[in-house]
Amino acid sequence: MWKLERLTPQTTLLKNSNMIKELANVVTVEAGQVTVSSQIKSSCSGCAQVDTCGSGQVAKALPQAKLSLTLPYDVNTLGRELKQGDCVVIAIPEEHVLSSAGQVYLLPLFGLIVFSGLGQWLFKQHILPHELIALALGITGGYLGYKLAKYNQKHGKQSEKLQPKIIEVLPTKKISQ
Q1: pLDDT by residue (tens digit) across 77-102?
Q2: Residues 4-13 pLDDT 10s
Q3: Number of domains in the chain
Q4: Residue 33: inside a domain, yes or no?
Q5: Which pLDDT value is given to residue 56?
Q6: Is the pTM of this model over 0.85?
Q7: Domain of 52?
Q8: Is residue 156 situated within a structural domain?
Q9: Secondary structure (DSSP) of the chain
């Protein structure tokens, strides 16, 4: 969420306060693109019940996975040249993730409910000969809602907003030996 903070009576600063952030390491830097890698974390490692919980046992048994992303990169935007091994902070605005999740869950549900209601109405009006056809109509509505949500995620306005961006390059410390 964007909010305005007052610095002086004459000036204001636009600040992004709700971002989902993650640390990542730069793997490769190419012309206009950078590939970063991040460790996928399980919240089970920080829980006090990790030894007695079934989910904690499964999390211990599975190897830690890494997520690799190729992101657009512009030296002028970051103000610094990236090189392999740099630690960066990548982020996605929280509001876009929440609205995207809402689409993914609600559009299929809405399609299921609307088409099921339509199927039941058509059955009650004796237009459909069997209730199984009304059921199939409801399932079709759920599927169409799913396809619409999938299309919106890939081709809609949300797809670019969900692209993670590098917001900060963390300083690297030289260790003398």
Answers
A1: 777 888 888 898 889 888 888 888 88
A2: 333 333 322 2
A3: 1
A4: yes
A5: 65
A6: no
A7: 17-170
A8: yes
A9: -EEEEESSSS-EEEEE--EEEEEEEEEEEETTEEEEEEEPP-GGGG-TTTTT-HHHHHHHHSPPPEEEEEEE--HHHHTS---TT-EEEEEEEHHHHHHHHHHHHHHHHHHHHHHHHHHHHHHHTT-SS-HHHHHHHHHHHHHHHHHHHHHHHHHSHHHHHTS-EEEEEEPPPPPP-
